[in-house]
UniProtKB/TrEMBL annotation:
The keyword Signal applies. Keywords: Signal. Residues 1-22 form the signal peptide. It comes from Lichenibacterium ramalinae. It comes from the Bacteria. This is Flagella basal body P-ring formation protein FlgA C-terminal domain-containing protein.
Amino acid sequence: MPPALFLSAGLAVLLGSAAPLAARATDLAGLPAYRGRVDLFTLTPRGEIDGLVLADGLEVKTPPHLSDAVAAAVRRGDTVTVLGLKAAALPLVQAMSISDEATGLTVRDEGPGWPAAVRHDDGAAPPEPRRGLRARIRLVLHGMRGEVNGAVLDDGTVLRLPPPDAVRLGAVLAPGRVVVVDGLSRSWSLGTVIEISAVGTAADRMTPVGPAANGMEQHR
């Protein structure tokens, strides 16, 4: 998938290495605002927050270096206002700032630096292998460049897999589709992530993902 084109008032940038610099140079007051209720946090396999999903399905991307700040300022169920750049063809926003109406706190992306990204080990459960988990895909998740890199199940569990595998398995990860998943599950106070090792539409139609898929290729 080509990089997603993000638009703001009078500004168009391709998300990539130059995008954060372009965004920080932009007056935030001139950026579009998106308001909604926080439905869930999206987490990386390390437990870092890399975004939010609002109740209307809008996916809000945040960089990992803001993980701790977002966790402190934003709460699930609160109404937030997001200033940022929206993808032209996806319900996806790269957040430059997030303001939580209930806490009164605002998180602003000033670029990598202090505070550093942290893993949310508070309340973390030991990793747990999952096999044959059957569930429905609620929505597909994306990276900063608009590439598919995971999905959310109906219960809010986040599935993660490398973007090349996500593209290859796009038909399987379609919203509304029931899938069967094998992988390693990790849970934190903010949510649960399953790093997929295999996925399919039925237990007898599973496709290996990530290192498992590479191992199969090497042994063919």
